[in-house]
Design a protein that fits this description.
Strand content: 25-35%
Strand order of the largest sheet: 1-5-4-3-2
Order of helices and strands: HEHEEEEH
Shape: globular
Helix content: 25-40%
Number of helices: 3
Amino acid sequence: MLFAANKDATQMGIEKQPPLIEDLRNHTSEQLAELRLLLNAGFTGRPDVRRPGFYEIDGVGHVYYVFRYPTGAKVLLVAAWQKESDPVAEMVAYSCPAA
């Protein structure tokens, strides 16, 4: 009985940490903060059908292209672009929808 109570106490004390963001390029601190907020909220994004582990995550003003490590402890920020003002991103979004 004492062992079961101790086991429950240790399981309740462990919280899942948000993933660590590694930036490949010099993205702005606002972009990193928005991506961190989206990841903490549980957004997973749209998977890239041609590249396993890569996702597009829609933010308020930007779209983030990330690689999620299989362990879930780290996210690699590959690229970010503005939603509204980038005509190439809009064209790709309409022509190649993610599955």
